[in-house]
Write the structure tokens for this entry.
Amino acid sequence: MQTYRDVFAVGEFRTLFAGATAGVAGSTVTMLALSTLVYAHTGSPFLAAVAYLAGFLPQALGALVLGGLADRLPPRLLLAGWEAVHACALAVLALGVLPVWGMPALLMAAGLADSVAAAARNALVADLLPGNGYVLGRSVLNIAVGAMQIAGFGGGALLLSLVGPTAAMWAGAGTAAVVAVLYRLGLRARAPRATERRSLAGARLLLGDRDLRGLLLVQWAPNGLIVGAEALYVPYAGDSAGVLFVAAAGGMLVGDAVVGRWTTPESRLRLGVPLYVLLAAPYLLFLLRPEVWMAAALVAVASFGFAGHLGTQERYLAALPERMRGQGLGLAGSGMLSAQALAASLTGALAEGVPVPVAMALAGLASLTATACLIRHLRPVTRPADRRV
């Protein structure tokens, strides 16, 4: 596969694409509504940051303990069933029966199971799009994430201004229900990829291999720390925070489009370090406390650097044994989300004691430090996967 047209010629990928884009839009609206609600009630940057990424915090734990289910359960049943459960959880949020602290707690509980569904979805992409098709598929899904985040933040901001956060949460619940139906009707039945029970044992094997562990850390640390800075957009910009969120999503969209479509595996390798540096360096300028329009430009430039993740994913997939593809990709994705949520919590806590722009710049410096420490793992893995695990 060489073009996006080739990727979209696969009918089941079109279903996954539609489900992923709709799900991201719904989740973005819900996250924005919850973060705004918690910040309005508490005035705490720390609690607002935790609420923004509450569902991501436990995903690494879910991948470690439950990740093997991604290979042991039929993917259509798993994906459709989870979206139905997710819709019910969001409906509980929309009903307003939980206290403020209970809303993030519910999303954290849901995040445990969400890690398994994400693993199954990523593995199915790899199955449907072999070879270079996987990078193209991940690229177009990342582009969709950026586009739907723009739509989600715009639509969420509109809903919040017109009818408040409750309507936004109902919109998220309805979207999840639609995605459940889409997966049920648009994916064909498949047998599980594996039958043995090995969630914890498989995680130990993946984390025990030095090269695989290094590739996992590259996927988790640099961009996770930057999302910690992103979680402070609301305290930094107040009512104009949506401008920064849209700029971040737009920069990521352009980066994935350019790097995913117009680079080769060799050039993606060469671009890895520069892109990870670009991801963090603009946030150092937040020490100057730029106005919102300049901050948006810096955020957009930095978010282009998220495309460095494509080359890392490609090398990681090549190193994984096929029988552990679901669990391995799930651990990578869920660990990344948990790292992002942890970084958001830490930068939010830091912002309780130092000015918000300083906390954002420190997050950028930490990301650059992580890239420097992990730079050797940006080289390709050359040993055969079957000798690793």
The radius of gyration is 20 Å.
